[in-house]
Amino acid sequence: MKIVNIHEAKTHLSKLVEEVLGGETVIVAKAGKPMVQLAKIGAPRGVRPLGLLAGKGKEMPGCWDADPELEETFYGSEESVRSPKVAE
After folding, report:
1. In the Cβ-directed half-sphere of 70, how many Cα atoms lie within 13 Å?
2. What is the CATH number of the domain that holds 13?
3. Within a domain: 67
4. Helix (H) or strand (E) holding 26
5. How many other CB atoms sit within 10 Å of the CB of residue 28?
6. What domain count does the chain have?
7. pLDDT tens digit string along 43-87?
8. Does any domain span residue 86?
9. Which residues contact 35 (CB under 8 A, 6 or more apart)?
10. 18 φ, ψ to 5°?
11. Domain range spanning residue 26?
């Protein structure tokens, strides 16, 4: 295990990263107090297959039907569409 101060870590970051990739444990300290540890990121878990949830969801009957209240909010009532107000 190797302990370095923040200034040294900033100066030699590339070298420290190479050491961590080689298996060394590197701890960055501030005023002698350990603050963080540099760690190698594990290999990706692989590609997730598509369609894992296919066929497991259900739609309620009428879920795609228009909502009259929402349509009136956006488009107005039928009376307001037939007789639009015109500025005089």
Report:
1. 4
2. 3.40.1620
3. no
4. strand 26-30
5. 19
6. 1
7. 778 888 888 889 898 999 988 999 989 988 898 876 655 555 666
8. no
9. 6, 27, 28, 29
10. -60, -40
11. 2-38
Location of structure tokens 């590339």 = 14
Q: What is the pLDDT of residue 76?
A: 83
Note whether 24 and 4 are within 8 A (CB): no
Q: Which amino acid is at 62?
A: G
Which residues, in sequence order, are CB contacts of 3 under 8 Å at separation 6+?
26, 27, 28, 29, 34
Query: For residue 31, is it within any domain?
Result: yes
- The count of other CB atoms within 10 Å of the CB of residue 81 is 9
> Can you list the alpha helix ranges (DSSP code H) found in the chain?
6-11, 13-21, 68-75, 78-82
14-53 pLDDT, tens digit per residue, is 999 999 999 999 999 999 999 999 999 887 788 888 888 8
Paired residues of 34 in beta bridges: 29
Is residue 13 one of the residues assigned to a domain? yes
**pTM score, two decimals?**
0.49
